[in-house]
Write a structure and sequence with these properties.
This protein is an alpha/beta fold. 33% of the residues lie in helices and 19% in strands. It contains eight helices and eight strands, in the order βαβαβαβαββαβαβαα. It has an eight-stranded parallel beta sheet with strand order 1-8-7-6-5-4-3-2. α6 packs parallel to α8. Zinc ion (ZN) binds at residues 8, 33, 35, 66, 175, 195.
């Protein structure tokens, strides 16, 4: 199973975003986590298609777009067209989640479903055979720099157990409050794609990435 760090550009310095993307790509990062917020599904607004389009030209990384957007089915075509390689939607934000996920897959892009801390795995059980990725939010979505919610660890373990028992092939991604103190917990619990914003972009990017990857690889199963 692959284990990858997915730096979230929500915590990047947009004054020098291109430079920072080059730095993380040179540090052997493969996934770029792009947190799109609409001010409706979550109480914050981040960025959208124009930012993705402009960085697409400069980067070979896998663009992992996380839509914290109400009724995301309205924007699938646009987020595919601007360069997303993977699109994750929230089950809490969709009228027909299964249909929207099928639409993402039909566009030739990896399809992910995300659950907020208060949403149980039961809400997405019927989607697990369809999705390429399950994103377990380990903070309330909306802002970087929050504290990891320990109550979410059991959901990661449950999703890994379900994958093993049913030969599901989805990646398990975690997002929110992941740093040197919490990263080993989530890898041991079964997560293999690790989103980190503040832990990557605050301080020396290369040093942060190297240290987080050391902890991931130490606990990889
Ligand atoms: C929450 C955001 C954050 C961000 C990661 O909606 O999705 O979780 O990606 O931020 P940190 O790693 O600083 O918690
Ligand atoms: Zn995210």
């Amino acid at each position: 199973m692959k284990y990858e760090l997915c730096p979230s550009i929500l915590s990047a310095d947009f004054n020098c975003l291109g430079e920072q993307l080059k730095t993380i790509e040179n540090a052997n990062v493969k996934y770029l986590h792009i947190d799109v917020m609409d001010g409706m599904f979550v109480p914050n607004i981040s960025f959208g298609m124009p930012v993705i389009k402009s960085i697409r030209k400069e980067s070979e990384m896998i663009f992992d777009t996380h839509l914290m957007v109400q009724d995301p089915e309205r924007y699938i075509d646009e987020f595919v067209a601007c360069g997303s390689d993977s699109i994750t939607i929230h089950v809490e934000a969709c009228k027909d989640c299964k249909k929207t996920l099928q639409r993402i897959k039909a566009a030739g892009v990896c399809a992910g479903v995300s659950i907020k801390p208060g949403t149980s795995v039961d809400e997405i059980r019927d989607l697990l055979g369809l999705v390429d990725l399950v994103l377990v939010m380990t903070v309330e979505p909306g802002f970087g720099g929050q504290k990891y919610m320990d109550s979410c660890t059991a959901k990661i373990e449950e999703l890994r157990r379900l994958a093993n028992e049913n030969s599901y092939t989805y990646d398990i991604q975690v997002d929110g409050g992941i740093n040197e103190e919490t990263i080993e917990t989530v890898v041991k619990a079964g997560a293999n794609l690790i989103v980190a914003g503040s832990a990557v972009f605050k301080g020396d990017l290369t040093e942060n990435i190297d240290s987080l990857y050391r902890l991931i690889n130490k606990n990889a199963q």
